[in-house]
Specification:
2 copies of one chain form a homodimer. Chain A has 192 residues and is α+β, with helices and mostly antiparallel strands. The first copy, chain A, has 4 helices and 12 strands. In chain A, strands 4, 7, 8, 9 and 11 form a 5-stranded mixed beta sheet that branches. A 4-stranded mixed beta sheet of chain A has the order 1-2-3-10, with no helix packed on it. A 3-stranded antiparallel beta sheet of chain A has the order 6-5-12. Chains A and B meet through strand 2, strand 3 and helix 3 of A and strand 2, strand 3 and helix 3 of B.
Chain lengths: 192, 192
């Protein structure tokens, strides 16, 4: 798959700082009264999120701990490394964080820029027909326990507020209000 | 009201950059295998969000345009200036963005840190018994049209996905699933 990376930085933006995770860009921006101000925006490596589904329909979630952060329950996720495309990153993160691999290709569900002041894309993939092929291989800054759930259990975890916020958990919540949308979500995850 | 500002920066964090909006902090963090990595977090001025309610129960929303950003429909909001406390900032932003002023004191509904890698508090206030006392007084980088809605219209805007995401819009969505929670929200907004 070839994907053009979306950027929301104007072409005249200049990098003024580069840290471990974040870069800072600035540019002169004309305001509504004709005056000019220095505008600022962050940039960080893009993220992939993965929803792995096994052959029997089980969905794998990541119960994750990181130094200095509360325990969160969410989807498998990680940053896209230099030189990787989103699909490669999705396969790698899935294998590292779960030990699972999909027979099917990662399927792009959505692509978003969650934070307006940050040039940061989040790609959400579904990977069907996953099988365990290895042990987890985690970074020294990660602790991840897998949680295996059914579709209905995932919906209930979102409704009860136990899942980290993501646009997909928001979509599940909205689907809870409309049976037709819930059927579409079910089909998205299970039809091949 | 006196409010201790919550910070999630560890005491040993050092500022390595200060821009127009964002500051960058770093610190050495021990990982699970005993190795040490440089961790990084952003800091920005805290934000107030305000839900103004007039005497006849109308809720004021802000239809806002900023250079280089899509039009958004959300709550009145702005940054807390140097030397201001959240309540003062809520009163000022309400007056500047709407020309309205509340007879009642701003009432704190919630306080959150929406982004784990950012030391940034968002305070959400309800201001009841609002009256128009002046014209809007906007920054040259803002264009705001007021939209007056009923409680039911606000709920419908959230359900239809027309409101910018906030923890309060998420709360409205969840309340839509549980009549008891919706009654509580209604009482929160209208009982004095």
């Amino acid at each position: 798959m070839s994907m053009e990376r979306k950027t929301t930085l104007p072409p005249e933006a200049k990098r003024v700082f580069k840290g471990e995770i974040f870069e800072v860009y600035q540019w002169p921006q004309a305001l509504y009264d004709g005056s000019v101000a220095t505008f600022e925006k962050l940039k960080r490596a893009d993220t992939v999120m993965v929803i792995p589904v096994t052959e029997d329909g089980t969905i794998l979630l990541a119960h994750e701990e990181q130094p200095g952060k509360p325990l969160t329950l969410g989807f498998v996720s990680g940053r896209i490394e230099e030189g990787e495309d989103p699909v490669q990153a999705a396969r790698r993160e899935l294998l590292e964080e779960t030990g699972y691999q999909g027979e099917a290709d990662p399927f792009l569900i959505s692509e978003e820029q969650p934070f307006s002041k940050m040039d940061w894309n989040v790609y959400l993939f579904l990977v069907r027909k996953c099988k365990k092929v290895a042990e987890q291989s985690l970074d020294p800054g990660e602790r991840i326990n897998l949680r295996k759930v059914t579709f209905d259990e995932l919906v209930e975890l979102v409704v009860q507020g136990h899942m980290s916020y993501s646009s997909f958990s928001d979509r599940i919540l909205r689907a809870k209000l409309e049976p037709q949308k819930m059927r579409e979500l079910y089909e998205l995850i299970y039809s091949s």
